[in-house]
Sequence to fold (358 residues):
Amino acid sequence: MKISKLFLIALIVVVLAALVGCSQPTPPPAPAQEKPAAAEEKPAAPAEEKPAAAEEKPAAPAEKPKKTYKDLVVGFAQIGAESEWRNAETASIQETAKELGVTLKFSDAQQKQENQIKALRSFIAEKVDVIGIPPVVETGWETVFQEAKDAGIPIILIDRRAAVPEDLYVTFIGSDFVEEGRRAARTLAKIVDGKANIVELVGTVGSGPANDRAKGFREALEEFPDMKIIDSQSGDFTRDGGKKVMEAFLKKHGTNITAVYGHNDDMALGAIQAIEEAGLKPGQDIKIVSIDAVRGAFEAMIEGKLNATIECNPLLGPQFFETALKVVNGEEVPKWIPSKEDIYLPDNAKEILPTRKY
Ligand code: AHR
Fold:
C-alpha cells in the first residue's frame, strides 16, 4: 500500500512537470539582416569574365575644344581706301567682326604692297589665328606667305588673288573677275549695237581685277569685230585717276571716242566729270560701262550718265569670318568661295538704289 502511494505521487510530479514544459513561450525570430538580399545573392564576378580588350584599350585622347568667334584673333591687311567699293568692304569686315565678337587687327596699306607685307609680318609676330588679305597686286607674295605657313597661320585671300602655289593659302573668297570683264563687253555690245571705239580705264597695274577684267573683256570682244579698244591706261581704281586719264584720252582722240570701259565705277565716275568738262554728254555722246555697282553708279545711271554697271560684291565680312572659324577648327573649305553678282542697267536703277547697301 505504501509503495503504490509513493508511485502515484511520483506519477503526478512527472505529469505536472511535462505540462509546465509545454506552456513555455517560443523565442522571438532573428532580426532581418540590413544587407539587401540581392547584394547577398549576387555571386562575385570571376576575374576572367572581364573582356581582355577593355583592359588593353588606351584611354581616348581628349578632343581639342572647338574655337568660337569670341576666341578668334584675325589680322586683316586691307589695301587702302581707293574706292567706294573698298570702303564698303572695310565696313563689312569691321562691322561683322564686332557683331560676332571676333578680335580684329586691321591695317590699311595705303595701296602699297610693302605696307601689306609689313602688316603680315606684324600679324605673324602677334600670333593671330588667321590672316585675311586682298593682295594689292598678284605677284611678290611667296616669301611672306611662306613665313605665315611656317608659323602655322593660315592665309585667306579675300576679293583679290595672288600668283602663289596653292599650298600657301587656304582659300580665295571673291569674284570671277574674268567673267566680269566678259559681261562688261557683252553688255556694252548691246548698248552700242556691236560698234564702238572704246577707251579702257584700267585698274591698279598688276592687280588681279585689272589683269582679269582686261582679259575677259578682250575675250568677249572677239564676238564683235566692230568694237575696238583704241586706248588703254591705268587710273589706279580711283576717281581722280579716272578723271585724269579720261582728260588725256579726250585730248588725244577727241570725238573719235564712242565708249568707255571702266574697270571700276569710281574711275568711270571720274571720267564722267572729264567728259562733261569737255562739253560732251556722258551716257549719250559717249556710252559708259563699268564694274562694281556702287551707289554712285546707280545715281549716275538715274541721271542718264552711266549706261551699265556690272556687280562685284564687297560685302564679304560674313563669308570671311565663317570661313576663318572653319579653318581654325580644322574643317575643310573649298579652294574658291565665289560671291554672287548681277548686272544693272538704268531701267530700274531708281527702284534698286534704296536697296543698295554700298
Ligand atoms: O578688288 C576689287 C576691286 O578693287 C574693285 O573693283 C575696285 O573698286 C577696288 O578698288
